[in-house]
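The passage that follows is intended for readers who have already worked through the single-chain material. We present the inputs for a multi-component assembly, then the predicted structure in tokenized form, and finally a short commentary. You are encouraged to pause after the input and sketch how you expect the pieces to fit together before reading on.
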Amino acid sequence: MNNARKNPPQIPPGTNLVDTHCHLDMRGYENLDDTIASAARCGVTRIVTIGIDLPSSIRAVEIARRFNGVSAAIGIHPHNAARTDNETYAKFQALAENKANKIVGYGEIGLDYAKKYAPRNIQLKAFRNQLGIAKELNLPVIIHDRDAHEDTMQILNRNKPFYAGGVMHCFSGDSELALKVIDLGFYVSIPGIVTFNKSETLQRVVREIPLNRIILETDGPFLAPVPYRGKTNKPEYLVFTARKVAELKDISLEETARQTTVNAENLFRFNSGRTLH
Ligand SMILES: [Zn+2]
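Having made your guess, compare it with the prediction:
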């Protein structure tokens, strides 16, 4: 069945959403002009495109420079932690120092004990190093934590305070962890997984934490929300996640969009007034 016909995202006019975490440089976005135009039609006003290593961070910057309303985040994902040296870190610093690069966050960085593409000690070292760089650059941190809650929180607590703030992206813990994340001054980012039937823990998190600490993300091209589960995720599908959050909080889609957009703006302090539409 044709995807576009199945359930075209519908959104009330004037509803503005921010996709705070998408990988626009990855496969699935071969026609970026189309991807971004469709996102704009579906209420997305801004997208933060996230780097996972030096080449993808450079691509993120190139995309941010090309499109109004797109900003970049740069960093080394824990999967890529083993392939990094000091010279690479210096290049990240140089990238971030150029204001025209529209870099609004440092990440994604963190720990991934589910896949273990890099040994733990190397992941830990890369994580600590990059928290330091992010602080020097005064950028909010975008944290990836998969099956590594304890170590992630320990490192974050040892490195606080985070004056520029941060976000736990694609949040995968319970309400107790979410409240600890919020205690650090961080936001909790809700992905499309929240629309899955079996995501009861994440749905409870959304119900139990304050709306003013929630931001939304697609994590595209991964983790498409229902009704596109299993397909390439796109920024235009963010509305399905927003709608689910609204339903869980028993508030309107407009209110959900308004507050999560304010939150994203507070966190990333987008330096360009221009949006996607
Ligand atoms: Zn990601």
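Commentary: Confidence is low (pLDDT under 50) at residues 1-5. The longest helix spans residues 120-137. How closely did your sketch match?
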